[in-house]
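Human: If only I could read backbone structure tokens as easily as an amino acid sequence. Underneath my words sits a plain record pairing an amino acid chain with its backbone structure tokens. Take your time, and here it is.
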Amino acid sequence: MSPILKPGSAWSDAYERCVSAAPQAFHDDRVLNHWGGFWQRDGRPEPAASPVDGTAIAGPPRLDRATALRAVRAGLDEHRLWRHVPLAERKARVTAALEAMTAHRDLLTLLLVWEIGKPWKLAAADVDRCIEGVHWYVEEIDRMVGGRVPLGGPVSNIASWNYPMSVLMHAMLVQALAGNAVIAKAPTDGGLACLTLATALAAQEGLPFTLVSGGGAELSPALVRGKELGCVSFVGGRDAGGQVATSLADLGHRHVLEQEGLNCWGVWEYGNWELLTGQIRKSFDYAKQRCTAYPRFVVQRSLFHEFLAAYLPAVRSVRFGHPLAVEGPDDPPPDLDFGPLITNAKVKELADQVDEAVAKGGVPLYRGSLDDGLFLPGQDTSGYLAPVAILTPPRSSPLFHAEPFGPVDTIVLVDTEAELLAAMNASNGALVATISCDDEETVRRLAPEVRAFKVGVNAPRSRGDREELFGGLGASWRGAFVGGELLVRAVTQGPDTERLPGNFPGYTLLPTSR
């Protein structure tokens, strides 16, 4: 029996539910931008397609530069009013917004499935982490803002497409809770409808949210260099992050710039291979399209045969395919590790990099096939890439020094501790790293030498939730660190002498706990 699309889960069904839930934000033919306290039918809607199967979906209504500047100025007007709203009222409004999002949790999840290709379980987790995480901030905010005031202007958010709710919307809600008006750019590659619905639910409760769409060249003068801004928050790659940092260099804006790094997993003097097999399988969640993915394994050469015996069963067990393909109409969405990559252009880019790496001497340890995926009959599969693992990628390959943002692993063999550390620090800084090692004394000696903000021992590290801090070392982060109380400190003003924990041009200050 061939799989079918789960009834009631088509994109047309999802969009119709959006129009019903928030008609002010969703018109029959397009979504709207929100600024100045109103939904605006402006901008030029661009066509868009779902990575799941090429279905046409709502595209971003791209603003021009002049309109974006007007939107930021309107955000400043909202900020000047909102910063004086009592904390108790801010808490009540944010809580009401969270309750509205909870009521529409399944619709937000379905939108993420179609817009960015997340399997249902992971998409639901993205929504739940946003809601649960901000509830924690509502409970804790009183102590966090003691002796602090909102910034002088709104917070501008530019984030990647992979976590629209648990990263971007979560940050927006906390920024508003701390007393700031909030401006956000909808990611160009996905998440528009999900963010628009969440913004509509928040705006209905009186939260000062601005949500606009557009390209970096058009919007950067407003969303990065706008003199009205109190802070710029960016999540994305190093190239784009470097451009943002350059634009901010002479402005003195508060900033939080989370950039990619090559997160490495070292294996040294280790023997718990059954545990590692499960961890490797889990590392393929969402096709490694996240900033804390582990695409590089650095392995002690003398252990390579045992590592390979643990690695291959893990990668062979990975399940991927259409996130809404079911055997029967009453079946739940399939339990997949990942669906498509964000675009078919990304699939081609990675496939070309893999071919080039192998042609120049890299050894293909594993190369999966789309025949192993779960797909609907005749569906477009150009957005999918099966898992790949390459031993010893050539140094000239982008796969050697950069994060692939896809289900492509590289494995490097080393003979000494010095080589292990050099290989794990190949990208001049990372967000996370892990060392699998049975000897505690060895781990205590090696872990401080790894240039990552968080270093796990025999377990992966992640961005974390609630009180857990987050940042990066080296070129993976610029500006204030976030997470827990640090997120609130990053978007509020303390004493004049305060030095925020972070990675700044003049200093790096690490928090006492990571």
About this structure: The radius of gyration is 23 Å. The longest helix spans residues 120-144.
